[in-house]
Amino acid sequence: MLALIGQERLQITIHGIQAHQAWNKIGLGWVVIRAALSIQTGKAMKSLEEYLERTESAAIKLFDGIDSYIKILRDSPKPIFTFSGNIADLEADSKIREQAYDVWKSKNEVKLSLGAQRDFLTESFALATLCGSILQIAAMGIQWFSVNKEIPEDLPEELKSCIRKPNLTKFCIGRRVRTVPIGLVIYAGRNQYNHMNDKKLNPLNTTIFNLLAHSDEDTTEQFSKDPAFDLENSVLDNRSSNITTILEWENYESYYADMHSLIVAA
Could you tell me which residue, 4 or 44, shows the higher pLDDT? Predict the structure, then answer.
C-alpha cells in the first residue's frame, strides 16, 4: 500500500470536496483534513517557513475552491433600480414609479441575480467548510511554531482574564481586528469550526467572538451585535467564512502574508 504524507492526503481530500457537493461528503472532507494534519506533526518540520511551504499546495487549492463559490455572486448581474420622478404631482409620480419598477423587476437580469443569490446560499456551508480548513492549517502552524509567551498589556481585560494556560499565549500575536490579535481570531475561528455541534464554547472563544461582534469603538451591550459573529445567532452554524472575511484573507497571498508576519518575520 502506498503511504501518503500529510500534504498529499490534504490534496486528495480537497479534490474530493470539489467533486462532491453533498453535505455528508463535505462533512467527511473536513474530518479527513483534520486527521491528515494531525499525522504530520510539527516536530517533523523545523520552522513555520517549512510548514507554509509544505502546506502551500493544499492551501492554494482551498482558496481556489473558496473563490469558485464567491464567483457565483461576483459574476452575477447587479441590477439597480433608478427612477426620476415629478415632485409636482406625487400621486401620478407614485403610479409611474410602480409601473417602472414592475418592468424593471421582470427583466431577466433581476431573475439571474436572484438565482445567483439562491445558488450562493445553497453552497454557503460548503464555502464555510473550506474556510474552516484554512483556519485549521493556520492554527496548527501557530500552535507548533509560535514562541510568544507574553500577554499584551493593552488587551481588553475580559480577554486577558480568559488566557490562563501558557500554551494560549502562542496565539496572542499579530495585528488587531476589533481589538483582538489575529492569532486569537484564528484560534477562536478554528475552535468554532471544529465544535459546531457543541452547545457552548469555552469562555475564551466566547469572549473573542463577543469582541468581534462589536466594532472597535462600540463594545457595550447597548449597540447591536454583528450577526456574523454573534454566537447567539441561530441562523449560522459555521462562522468560518466570516472569520476569513474579517481577516481579509481573499486569496493565498493575503493568508501567507499574515502567517509570515506572525512568526517568520517576527
Answer: 44
Would you state the pLDDT for residue 173?
Answer: 96
- Return the H-helix or E-strand segment holding 177: strand 176-177
Q: Is residue 152 part of a domain?
A: yes
Count of CB atoms situated within 10 Å of the CB of 105: 12
235 CB burial (10 A radius; 0-12, 13-18, 19+): exposed
Domain around 85: 76-122
Q: Is residue 219 located within the same domain as residue 95? A: no
Coil vs helix vs strand at 181: strand
Cα gap 55→133, rounded to integer Å: 12
**pLDDT tens sequence across 233-243:** 887 788 999 99
pTM given for the model: 0.71
What sign results for the dihedral spanned by CA atoms 229, 216, 191, 175?
positive
Q: Per-residue pLDDT tens for 177-186?
A: 999 999 999 9
d(CA 102, CA 112): 16
Do 244 and 183 lie in a common domain? Answer: yes
Strand 176-177 to strand 180-181: parallel, antiparallel, or no bridges (unpaired)? antiparallel
